[in-house]
Amino acid sequence: MNPVRRLLAVSSRNLRWLIVVVLSVAVTVSARAANQAVGLDPIAEGVSAPFARGACGTIVFNSDETYETGYAWQYGGNSPPDFGAFAESYSGVTSVCAVYLDLTQTGGQVDQPIDVYIWDQGNDRPGAVVAMAAGLDPGDVARWPAISRHSFSIDGTPSTNQWWAGFWGDWPSGIAAFFIAADVDGPGSDVEPMSKVPPDNEFGYGTGWRNVSDMWGPTQALGIGVEYSTGTIGACCYEDGTCRLRSINFCDGDYLGDDELCEPNPCPQPPSGACCSPNGDCELSNVFFCEESYLGDGTDCSPNPCPQPPIGACCHQGECFVLDVFDCDDLGGVWLGEVGCDGLECPEPECPGPQPMTGGENYTPSTRRGDPGPNAGGTLILHFNDDIELTGPGDGYCGTSELEFCGNAASTVNVDVPVVFHALAIFDPDAEPRLTGINFGVEYPGCVHISETGHCGDLAIETSDWPQSGEGAALAWVTPQTTSVTEVYWFVSYVDSGLSGTMNLIPHPQRGAYFADDSIPAILDPISALGAMGFGVAGFAPCPGATGACCNPEAECVLLSEPECLDIGGEYQGDGEPCIPETCLLARAGACCFDEDCMVTTFSECEGAGGLWLGDGVDCESDPCASTPIIETSWGKLKDRFRPLKR
How many whole angstroms from its chain centre is CA 485? Predict the structure, then answer.
């Protein structure tokens, strides 16, 4: 059986949406969706990479620089520290100053960095690491069948005559972000290119370096080139005291001579002095590496010569502290200047940072083109199950939301300790969803914090700063999800003590807010409504269809459609009406005094008749109206009487 894995072609329209690309891999290849090693559909005539001029020497490729296909690892095949890496062999002891990669993609690239390596020879395969440059940005990668060339500076001198150059793409357990171009008909070299096979791979091989032909079929070379200094090399000294191995022609500093080494550093070091930071800290540095204020050669940090920042009143959560401006900022407070706290009243605490302006009740779904798909009308909500016990970091919470009916969703948290809640895709119980993908984002103010999160799909691609406010995620399932309630993500979150705010679901910053099905190409249905979780304030959990606030027989507010509300004997408050603390107040019954006569009524009935309402749940059996009652209470307790019952 040919082990080559081919990635099906994806239409240009689908490439507009990351999740469709994810689905094209995860769905259209069916049983092959979990493949770790993937390759592009080959083309008869190879495509060329664009020419690039070297910056420090001669550029060499083992390929003929035209390519017929491309290879990548994904899912468990691409995992730390370097499983899924690719390497090409070169010979000759020299100074390598750059690695070149000829890359292509089919739409999976979303800010994934790359690690570049130089290895010594080790038992006919890459051995000890000579040099590594991590977290590099390749820039925009061309779409197949186009190829783009990307250069990465690196400084390494192999100690063996045969050595290796290559890379590892940083998308652990995710879908392939891009592919290394592969030359199947060129001259190649005497040594076949290799890839580092992960543990528990689909081929049954042991872990370690193997020829790429074992996984993808006959291959002459990969699009991995190197740039090295020509001629004899030696130590090249720079003004800041750093040393680089260069040939005399490419040393733009002070060349110390052929075969001179940089270990130990032979270069003269510049004089040091005190380097001051704005916060008043001092460290010894030199004029080249001091990023702030350099006080001069020979100056010392003992005693500290740096100007100290001003000290004054800092208001944090309603309290005043005397701090410098930097410590106040680290605390998250507001510095009021060089004044004391005596007699100063700090304002009541407010939620710092920008308040959510989109999502929740303000969300307007995008216009969908074409006929509705099976996921049309679905919503995305946040639900808090207070029965979940928060355990340790790294534990997952998929399968714990226990929400079976949208109307029972709890979208408000009234504690300021970390809690677990879920994002759930909701569909009408009579619908027949086929959910295989979703795009969405999150937005929340500075007093709301997300300490941990995880997804409940088969794969997820998240923006680089997820789950920070304004970031987004794309999630996919290999098998269509067909239930009316599907867990999407879980979050561990909390709000600063004494403050309140909301976490809103919003459209993905690049991809919008869509559900995808398993059609080919996938049908994208806009998410019809996005929910919000309230911390100390009312949240918003919209159900599919026309829904609104419903006061159930217990005078609790739930979001239901009008027929659902009437079926449970509730009072429907109108389409689109949210559940807020006062929503069901008028539906609650309690004692109402007409002079000394008592009658159980709702608040509105009592007020309309000119009576004195004594509160929710107060009965007439104790004859509370015999004399004008005086209720000893506090304003806080009085407000609690008019809040919805805790769900």
Answer: 23
